[in-house]
Every structure is written in C-alpha cells, then in structure tokens.
C-alpha cells in the first residue's frame, strides 16, 4: 500500500501525503479494503489550521515505527472535517457518547463497515498521567480485536443503534402542521441569552470562548424589527453591542490587519487561538454590516463598527482571496518565530519590535503604543503579546495607531505568513458572497461587490454543473463529495443577497436553481435530511448510525443547513410568492420551540430566520433605468432595518419577468425609477424619492 493523499483538494490531507502511514481518503474503497483484510479501521479527523493536529502528526504519524504498526494492523483513513462535516459529526457524537469531551484531532477506531467502537482525541507519543500513549492505544485496540472480537462488535453495534436514535430524532417532518412562531418566543430567547451572558467580559460562557455569530445575527435582527417588543428590542440591541464591543476590542480581533481568530483560550478574550477561519470572519463581517445598518449603539458605536468591518473585509481580500476568485478556508494557528514554529508567532509583538518597526525617530510613539496595547515591559520586555487594548481607544490613541498602522503592517508583512488552506468550501464562500454584498452598501465600498461577483462566479461555474453541486474546489477544479444541505442553502443565500445588491438577475436565477436542487435531493418521504445516498462513503456513515438518516438542526461554527435552507426559502417566497417554499420554511421553523428547550445559543440562525418571518414579507421593488436616482432608491431599500425585507431591482417588466416581484411594475411617466413597497404583493403607491421611500419603510408596510 502507499499513501493516497497527494493531489487531494484538502490542504489538511495534502499535509499528510508524505507520512509513512498508508493513509486513504474517506470513501468506499477504504472500507472495502478493511473488509477484505479483516482489520479494524483507524479514522483520524482534523483540519489544516488545527494546532494539536500538527502536534500529533509530527509525534506519531511521521514516526516510522508507529506507521508500521498502523499499516500492518489497520486501514488508516484521514478526514478533513471541513470537507466532510457529515463524517465528523457522526464520529464526534460517537466520541462523546463514550465519555470523551471531544475535539481535534479526533481519533476513531471502527469496524470494517464504519461502526465506531473506540474513540479519543489527541494521544501523546509517550504515556502521561491519566493518558496512554498512542502506541499503547494501538496495541490495546489490536489485542481487543484479535482476542475479544465478539465484544468489540457488540460495542460497535450498540453504539451505532444509540447514535442512530439520536440523529433520527432531529429529522424534520415537513408534512406536519407547522407551529405558529409567536413574538413571545423570540423575546424569551433574548431573555435566555441575557441570562447566559458573561457580565464581566462579554460573550457567553467561559473559556474557551467562541464568537457567537449566528446568535448575534438574531439579536441584530430582533433589534431592528418594527414589530418586536420594545423592551426586548432594546435589550437585544444592548446585548449585541456589548458582545461585539468585547470581541472587537480584544485580542480575538487583529487590530492591526483585521480579521477574527477562531476563539479565545481565556474568558476575557485576551489570548486567542490564532487560527483564522473564513467561516467566522464572513459571518462577523455580515453582522457588522447589519449593525452599521441598524445605527450602532452606545455600547458599540458606528465608528468602531465601520473600522472593524472595513479591516475584516480588507483582510479577507488580502490574505484569503484566491486568483481564480473565491476565498481560501483558513490561516494556520502556527507560524514561524525566531526560527521555529509557534502558535501565533506572526501576530505577536515585543516592545523592541514595535520600536524597530517605527524607527528611532518615532521612539516616543512606539513607547506609547506599547503602553496602549499592554505589551510587557521591565524584566519581561522580551515577551511577545498580541496588540489589543481590551477597551475602546481614545481619539488621540486611535490617531496615533492609525498614523503608524502602515509601518507596522509593512514590518509584519516581512514575517512568514501562516500556512493557508487554499481549498474553497462552497458553504463558506456562499456566506462570504452574502457578507460582501451587504458590506459593500453598508461601508460604501463598491469594490467589495466585484469580489462577491468573482466568488459567486467561481461557485457557479466550477462547483455547479446545472444539477449537482460539489462542496470543495482547489486551484479552480472542483473535487470530492457532493455538497451538503448547507452548501446548497448558503450559496442560495449568497446569490439572493448579490442579486439585491446588484440587480443582476443571473444571481436570482441561480439561487432558484440551487433551491430546486436542494429540495429534490434533501427532501424525501416527507422528511428533510442531510443525506445524499450517492456521496462517497455514505454507506459507512449510514452504517455507523445503524441506517438512520441524519440532520443536525443545531448551529455549530456555522448556521445549520436546515436553518440556512429555511432562510433562503423564505427569501424566495417573498420574491416569488411561492406558497410551497414559504410552507417548507414554516415547517423547518416549526422545530424552533423544541430546540429552544436546549437554549437559544444552539439555534441562533433559525431564530434569525424566525424573526424575518415575523417581520415579513416586506417587499421592495425598485423599477427603472440604471442611474443615480435608481441607485439612491436601491440604497434606501437596502438600508432598511426590517429583517423581513427583500429588495428587487430591475427594468420595467411584464408578465414574463424573471423576478415575479418586478412583474407589471412600471417606471414613472418620464421614465424615472419608482420604488414599490409591498406586503405579500399588495403594494402602496410607488414613490420616486429616497425620502418618501424611507417614510414608507419606517411605517413597516
């Protein structure tokens, strides 16, 4: 056997292509080989920016003796959790069912058919108190396989049955009558979130602390909904402002170059885990764009929000943008410093490094900056730390930092950039399209629209063949598995946002195609699931769940596929009047009360969609020839804070209009553009000025 990871789309898999371990990608061939050889399967799951994945790779997978044992006794499979979240979710659930906390690298031992029987995470090369070495685990698993096979198989079967019950319990019956979402339910979710807030440091929970991106989108929408309870809307706005301020003023945010780290190791946001993920940043960029549209708050003023959003957009384009269009998946946590690879080496500074970057003529400014950002001094002056104040900068401090930002960035650019995972993940790029489209208008930066177009163009031409969607591409070539529900739905979400921002009907048409394909592939027998039976390795996934179909409605680091689909369906229904799509969206929303019993934090995006459903549909059709007047009307429509608004922009059209909301909408007698504000296609008198449109939108009807 030889290692089969060279040439894979995933950078994580390619990182292991030189290992002496005979790795195979996850798929039917690997399990068939395990069956033929009658050996267990070792499944190692991680991702390219994962620090401890690198550690275990260096300690164990690059070791020839360990590799020999794996090669002789197991079939070894390497999985990129970002490429195969379906596989990761099943085996992470198996790990947690066995009493482990879970995390990455995830180490799974499975029967030749894919059913897990033993699981763990990182194993060291030598035993430590309370944790065996990796080779001890290999020996113990092999001994159990050869000496107690029947017990091992019983364990695998019992675990698969249990997991199947858990996963199938989440399937959505789309034919069941949908529950009506009441405003009190959403106000109660705000109350629940406030009760979970860290009152000292902001955010939710303790260490490690993650950006609550889908929850923030709900809070911003709730604050902007005209029909939201007054006290609840005020509370949502304040909570969102406190959370955004805490993150943007902390080490989680790269104050110099922009972008957010994956999470903070500490509860006070002072020590980031330095990997930077596309999915975090596109969600937070969109939240910031919507916060700007909302008008900010005392807790987090507009000037700070604009600065954070602009820097994050710049970082995305500069450090994740790809020549073929679209965005790479992540930057590694580790980078070179003083000749060795360390976590965060690219981002941290010492006082001496600040002084050297600014030069001797700015020595006083360098000392002031070091003080503002709390860099260690005295006997600890050589200790490096990230640049963050942990508070809002005063005006003179901001001016000082801005004056020297270019010099600091230029100095940092001479360091070796952390490793980049260049694979394009459709779901995250779909969310990037939506974020850039919204940010372009919120920030007044039309060049962001061009980047959104390029990303959408890559997704449409490389990932989509007209009927099926592939999840990943690399260097302009799509490869690997068919897209998951989240890929279809997130790209439809992005395409609708791009249509509203540009008026280019090709994006609306593509969103319709994606939704049609998604409903064909993921809705069957009255149930919504995230199962495509022709996906490679699907048999092993199903076997690991005792044949159960799967759907995870909970948000993880990204919104759940089901909630993204509900949002895209709701948007399409507002544009088209489609009762079927609105009914399907309502059926998905019907699962919200059950999810809220587990806490609002697991259902942020579904809450955001529910808020849009309650507030809408509020339809705005801007009709007329292109020009400054139409642009002003479009800008006013896109500035509406109602989460239920959709914006259609185009030329006057008749019955055959591609976008039904534009059908039979006329321009003014002199040919000038008009804006129509409608609810369920019943429209008020059209208006020609942005001021008049603002008044109609403020009235909520």
Provide structural commentary.
The radius of gyration is 26 Å and the shape is globular. Helix 4 runs parallel beside helix 6 (134-147) and helix 18 (485-502) runs antiparallel to helix 19 (505-522). The chain is 49% helix and 12% strand. The relative contact order is 0.10. The strands form seven sheets. A five-stranded mixed β-sheet has the order 1-3-2-4-5, with helices on both faces. A four-stranded mixed β-sheet has the order 20-19-21-22, sandwiched between helices. It is built from 26 helices and 22 strands. A hairpin with a 2-residue loop joins strand 17 (523-524) and strand 18.
Q: What's the layout of helices and strands?
A:
Blueprint (H helix, E strand, L loop, with lengths): L10 H5 L8 E2 L2 H10 L3 E6 L4 H11 L2 H10 L1 E6 L4 H13 L8 E5 L5 E5 L13 H14 L1 H20 L3 E2 L9 H14 L16 H12 L5 H19 L14 E2 L7 E2 L2 E2 H17 L7 H19 L9 E2 L2 E4 L2 E4 L7 H8 L4 H10 L22 H19 L6 E2 L2 E2 H18 L3 H17 L6 E5 L2 E6 L2 H18 L2 H18 E2 L2 E2 L9 H7 L16 H16 L2 H11 L2 H5 L7 H12 L2 E6 L4 H11 L6 E6 L23 E6 L2 E2 L6 H9 L3
Parallel strand pairs: 1-3, 2-3, 19-20
Antiparallel strand pairs: 2-4, 4-5, 6-18, 7-8, 9-10, 10-13, 11-12, 14-15, 15-16, 17-18, 19-21, 21-22
Helix pairs in contact: 4-6, 6-7, 8-10, 9-10, 9-11, 9-24, 11-12, 11-16, 13-14, 16-17, 16-18, 17-18, 18-19, 18-21, 19-21, 21-22, 21-24, 25-26
